[in-house]
Amino acid sequence: MESYSASLSATPGQLSNCRVLLVEDDRDHQPLLAIILRKAGAEVTIAENGREGVDSACAARKDGSPFDLIIMDLQMPVLNGLEALKILRTEGFTSPIVALTARATSTDRNLCIEAGFDDFLSKPIHRADFLAKLALQWELAKSKPSGAQKQTPPLVVGVP
Q: Which domains does the chain have, with CATH numbers?
């Protein structure tokens, strides 16, 4: 039987060919998260706030190259993560959208899941857990029929 930590270990390429939109306003976190994602094989686009994230997601879908996965910080200027999520879901986005926040209580996690996020990640991140959760959401999305609504339970890792 595989151990819990082994099942979450990051492997190069586990996000190969995954188009990721990273919506994060912190300019210190942006390059660090992008490096982690790129080392796992993802193609990363960065948006600095929820409005830019919504605009980027809509433009990519219109161009025929939608993002496979969106990572959304919650506390951002212009448009916060919850507001951006509501707009994207109203616009029909069914791709996984994963919340990213420094607020890591189980109450915050439940609020995010109830709001329509597919999963919840807390800062500071643990690289292996971060990539495992994203890879799981991407794999689940690939196994769903196109346009199907997501009803996948989040992977619970390291939430108090």
A: 12-140 (3.40.50.2300)
